[in-house]
Specification:
heterotrimer, A mainly alpha (318), B mainly alpha (272), C alpha/beta (545), A: 318 residues, mainly alpha, MetI-like fold, 0% strand, B: 272 residues
């Protein structure tokens, strides 16, 4: 078999195995709760009826292995169980929330990624100039700040001082695309500031790392212009780390939105998870945890596969 | 050492100063602070004044005092976590690199699985099961963070492990302990110290985020993250008291980053 | 060449005057090239000779008005065809580079961009300089690939660098330099990274092509014999200064300066071999050994050899011959799949972990790169002292005294005891490695290319030291090398390896005198000699056969 294809299929196999290990971990984690699960969660003064309802919901009367497989089986078939807090089917709640989280992440990514890579390239081209230093300090500050701090500054500036955007980003299905964009402008900007910092610094570092290779000096001695050296000679060889950081930041956008969603009271999956955790609504925690983990594993997988594809040595075997 | 600090660029000096001030606060918070950590002394959200340098918080406690105590609590917990995760992650990483074979494979796979799980989500889930208390918090974050330390220390150690002087030691018949402590570790130290700074920043921000979400350090203990959350409402009234603890977080992380940047640059220059 | 009397031919095409170049060592700017003059006529080949640190590459690059990062041209003038390069704008310099002055680097493998096909990299220069269309450039590439004797000239350009062998890649780079018919090509050690048999192909290609196209060239190398084949004129550099300059033949026949004479001298040992035929006992015997990195795939097969006391056995071969693998098998780093190794009349366990300390002590190893063979964080005292405390439980004063003795044995000053390796030169580091091996009182030392990374004169010092130690202490050496000059100097017996097998073995005289095995013949005849006609004669001979 083609070595590239076999590497990729191995990586995919590993991704699937990881996902299974994680689902097991999530399941065992809940199992590990000390004492009787139902009592531990519902508290000492829960009525016997609620405890019984809880037991049936979590199928606590069945042996652990059987419960695990039925949970996974249901999950794959779209049945995520019922919330303990309000008894509603989880799939209904989560579907809409997850779509909202993705909407926020994708919107941010669409303008943050090209912008970050452009900035990184420019910083590498004009290395050590005032422009490079300015960008470097700005992005370092952006990634050194807690997200909620950035969020509050943005609120103070663009919602309190100059009331341009709402400080609470409520959205619903009746809104038009543009109104939605307007509503999520501040959370998007907060997320973008953080990921742009990461991606730009990584792009710059990767390019500068490649610039010390002998083939770059060769290109200079061939009389190739600096701009062309960076774009035609350095960039293709720095693709792998750049792809990696871009995809990892995408993963961060999906998963790391939790804090930003809380600040802006945005109805996403992250906020649901935080609520569920504080209410100890375990089925919801399990389900949303698994969805987050699945997305994360998938994106990591994409990062590895794409960087394999970007390697000319693997693409063109001897 | 002193000449080294003297030769460092201005940015690194600023960073070191910030770190020193913060460490001083950690040690001396009760001595410097004008009021008690949880003492109610005035109006809610009083403006800045001579008695209350940074005003008061949502319950009428002195903001300046709380910021000082917050430094003590947040930084010491973060340090405990980083030390724990480095002790664990580094020893596993060096062991994996030195021994190789199935030990390396096994540790590597376990870490791959843990790292395939987003840290914040993992922490949230574990805390939901175990409940939030400071020891749990320290332990959970340290374990999660040690996976990253493992990766870095293993990679650094692998680069050194392939050098001929390690082979010389092996051929001499040296044991695992000597090779790890005398051949590999001293050469791995500079990048690992830089990594320590980065991990500290990360853990520090992470605790602040957890506290902000209400799942980290619990009230009434002063802590920068929870202080921002508790005072968040003030922002919409144009009151800036939540900015102070958030600013403190930002300044410390930037300070550490400045020093780390300088150290990384220095060690890469020495290698070239 | 020279049928048309061209006025330009008598004028200097390149004229460097009083150029000073400095390099930044992390703290200060230090001079690398001191007030050098250099000139080159159209169609002339100038050889720049020198050891490392002579500033020859830096000077060569200065001919393009280029300074490597971390270097700067401080003063002086660089005139090219009436243009003052130092006064030119950045853009004007870029326009000249790769169009009228071209460069061939030492390592083609590192100097080709791994992400692009060879032919695209060939075409990039001429197209970017606006000299040709892409289509014309491709046609020119195929033409040059054919002239340089590359296999499948129409197709080879469509490969990626990693799909082509080292020697072919180096020729492809020569082709790339010739793409724009430059007036001058700068060759920076273009054959140093190649095996001797491959080196010949590249040398021939370079020689033919510069002759045919009448290109001027600056050929930078540390190897006088190589430059003797190509250069019309030679400049010998040392520490950034000119030692001697003159016509190539004159310089080879009759060098004026002592330094040049020493470079020219055939590698010989001041130390004579101690011939004691009373030492017949065999220290190491390898019989029928095969080994490989995967099961059932043997990298080396059926190795049989003996090392006697106070003797040096040289294992010779090119890269990929499996000579280093033999060393790894003996040390136990690579357990043999088959066969047996006997050391001091005891059968050695194939893998390292199950050998006892006494056995490890008696078998020591010295490496090619002293830089990575010494722990940069340990002082010399620890480096040499550790085997003493490890094997002999020495402590305190006794240990210090023995370390000092060992330093004396390797001819290093005693105050080095408190230094770190970084404070020593390459040759001194290698001496520390030898002292560390001696500290164990070994019977056999495996020397893996121990002089390859060192300058010629330093290497000679090391070989002399090794020979003296053998005479005094009766140690045996298993000498792994690709360098036949070293072998001639130090070996008692020679083992020639090719593709994982021993093709010929015997005493030095047996191997070096005809009749030879075919491969040994090829290997021996490929080593360049100082005679300027050597390459031409060799080609005639080979064609006759």
């Amino acid at each position: 078999m083609n070595p590239l294809a076999s590497m990729i299929s191995k990586r995919i196999m590993f991704g699937v195995l990881t996902l299974m290990a994680i689902s097991l971990l999530i399941f065992v984690g809940v199992e590990a709760l000390p004492g009787d699960l139902a009592e531990a969660i519902l508290g000492q003064n829960a009525t016997p009826e609620t405890i019984q309802a809880f037991r049936t919901e979590l199928k606590l009367d069945l042996p652990a292995s059987e419960r695990y497989f039925s949970w996974i089986n249901d999950f794959v078939h779209g049945d995520l169980g019922h919330s303990l807090a309000n008894g509603r089917p989880i799939a209904e709640v989560i579907g809409w929330r997850f779509a909202n989280s993705l909407f926020l992440a994708v919107t941010t990514a669409v303008f943050a990624i090209p912008f970050a890579i452009m900035l990184g390239l420019l910083a590498a081209i004009y290395r050590d100039s005032w422009f490079d230093r300015l960008i470097s300090i700005t992005t370092l500050s952006a990634i050194s700040l807690p997200e909620f701090f950035v969020a509050y500054i943005l609120i103070a500036l663009f919602s309190v001082q100059i009331p341009l955007f709402p400080c609470i980003s409520t959205i619903n299905d009746d809104m038009s695309f543009l109104t939605k964009l307007h509503a999520i402008f501040l959370p998007c900007l907060t997320l973008a500031l953080v990921v742009i910092g990461h991606m730009m610094r990584m792009t710059r570092a990767a390019i500068i790392n490649v610039l010390s290779s002998p083939f770059i000096e060769m290109a200079r001695l061939k009389g190739i212009s600096n701009r062309r050296i960076i774009i035609k000679h350095a960039l293709p060889n720095a693709l792998s780390p750049i792809i990696n950081v871009v995809v990892l930041n995408l993963a961060y956008l999906v998963v790391g939105v939790v804090v930003v969603e809380v600040v802006f009271v945005y109805p996403g999956l992250g906020q649901l998870l935080v609520d569920a955790v504080s209410k100890r609504d375990l089925p919801v925690v399990q389900a949303s945890g698994l969805i987050f983990a699945g997305t994360y594993v998938f994106l990591n997988l994409m990062a590895d596969v794409l960087s394999m594809l970007s390697n000319p040595k693997l693409r063109n075997p001897r | 050492m002193l000449t080294l600090i003297k030769q460092s660029p201005l940015s690194a000096k600023i960073g070191m100063l910030i770190i020193l001030i913060n460490l001083g606060t950690v040690l001396l918070a009760p001595q410097i602070a004008p009021y008690g950590e949880t003492e109610l002394i005035g109006d809610v959200w009083a403006p800045m004044s001579a008695e209350h340098l940074l005003g008061t918080d949502q319950l009428g406690r002195d903001m300046f005092t709380r910021v000082l105590y917050g430094a003590r609590n947040t930084i010491s917990i973060a340090l405990a976590i980083v030390f724990l995760s480095f002790g664990f992650g580094c020893s596993c990483g060096l062991l994996a690199a030195t021994l190789g074979g199935w030990v390396d494979q096994l540790l590597g796979r376990v870490v791959d699985v843990v790292m395939a799980f987003p840290t914040l989500i993992f922490a949230l889930m574990v805390l939901s099961v175990l409940g939030t208390s400071i020891p749990t918090l320290i332990f959970v974050i340290a374990i999660l963070d040690s996976t990253r330390v493992f990766r870095v220390s293993r990679a650094v150690a692998m680069d050194i492990e392939v050098m001929d002087f390690v082979e010389v030691a092996r051929l001499r018949g040296e044991g695992l302990w000597w090779i790890m402590c005398n051949e590999i570790l001293p050469n791995a130290l500079p990048p690992l110290i830089a990594e320590f700074g980065l991990r500290f920043c990360f853990v520090f921000l992470f605790i602040s985020s957890l506290s902000f979400l209400g799942l980290g350090i619990q009230p009434p203990t002063a802590d920068w993250g929870s202080m921002v959350r508790e005072n968040a409402g003030a922002i919409s009234f144009g009151i800036f008291s939540p900015m102070f603890p958030a600013l403190a977080i930002a300044v410390l992380t930037i300070g550490v980053n400045l020093v780390v940047d300088w150290m990384l640059k220095r060690s890469s220059m020495l290698r070239a | 060449m020279g049928q048309v009397v061209d006025i330009q031919e008598h004028k200097h095409l390149l004229e460097i005057k009083q150029v000073n170049i400095e390099g930044y060592d992390g703290e200060r700017w230090k001079p690398i090239v001191h007030s050098m003059d250099l000139h080159l006529k159209r169609g002339e080949v100038l050889g720049l000779i020198g050891e490392s640190g002579a500033g020859k590459s830096t000077l060569g690059l200065a001919a393009m008005g280029y300074a490597q990062s971390g270097c700067r041209i401080v003063s002086g003038s660089i005139g090219f065809d009436g243009i003052d390069l130092m006064a030119l704008s950045e853009q004007a310099q870029i326009d000249l580079r790769g169009s009228r002055i071209a460069y061939v680097a030492q390592s083609a493998a590192a100097s080709f961009n791994p992400a692009h096909r060879l032919i695209d990299q060939f075409a990039e220069g001429p197209v970017q300089h606006g000299l040709m269309s892409y289509k014309d450039a491709v046609a020119k590439a195929i033409d040059l690939y054919r002239k340089l004797d590359l296999p499948h000239p129409e197709k080879i350009g469509y490969r990626y660098p990693h799909q082509v062998s080292g020697g072919q890649l180096q020729r492809a780079m020569v082709a790339m330099a010739m793409a724009t018919d430059p007036d001058i090509i700068i060759f920076d050690e273009p054959t140093t990274a190649l095996d001797v048999t491959t080196q010949i192909e590249v040398l021939v290609a370079i020689k033919d092509v510069i002759k045919e196209l009448n290109t001027g060239a600056i050929y930078i190398t540390h190897d006088l014999a190589v430059v003797a084949q190509l250069a019309d004129r030679i400049m010998v550099l040392r520490h950034g200064k000119l030692v001697e300059e003159g016509d190539a033949r004159r310089m080879l026949d009759n060098p004026r300066e002592d330094y040049t004479r020493r470079l020219l001298a055939v590698r010989s040992l001041g130390e004579k071999k101690l011939l004691l035929e009373r030492d017949p006992n065999v220290v190491l015997e390898i019989s029928g050994v095969s080994a490989g990195y995967q099961k059932d795939v043997n990298v080396v097969q059926d190795i049989n050899l003996k090392v006697r006391r106070r003797k040096t056995v040289a294992v010779v071969g090119e890269s990929g011959s499996g000579k280093t693998t033999v060393a790894r098998i003996v040390t136990g780093l690579l357990p043999a799949n088959r066969g047996q190794i006997t050391f001091n009349k005891k059968v050695l366990s194939p893998d390292l972990a199950s050998r006892d300390r006494e056995c490890l002590r008696r078998l020591q190893m010295i490496y090619q790169m002293p830089d990575v063979a010494l722990n940069p964080r340990q002082k010399i005292k620890t480096i040499i002292g550790r085997p003493l405390s490890f094997y002999f439980n020495m402590k305190g004063k006794e240990l210090t005294k023995r370390v000092e003795e060992l330093l004396k044995m390797v001819e290093l000053p005693l105050h080095y005891i408190n230094r770190f390796p970084a404070e020593l030169s390459g040759g001194e580091k290698q001496r520390i490695c030898i002292a560390r091996a001696l500290a164990a009182n070994p019977d056999l030392i495996i020397c893996d290319e121990v002089t390859s990374a060192l300058d010629q004169l330093v290497a000679e010092g090391i070989l002399n030291l090794l020979q003296r130690l053998q005479n005094e202490l009766g140690i045996s050496y298993l000498f792994i090398t690709h360098d036949l000059a070293t072998v001639k100097a130090i070996a008692d017996e020679i083992v020639v390896m090719y593709k994982g097998r021993i093709v010929e073995q015997g005493s030095k005289n047996e191997i070096l005198q005809p009749p030879h095995h075919d491969y040994t013949q090829l290997l021996l005849s490929s080593v360049p000699e100082m005679d300027p006609d050597w390459l031409d004669n060799l080609l005639e001979e080979r064609e006759a056969v």
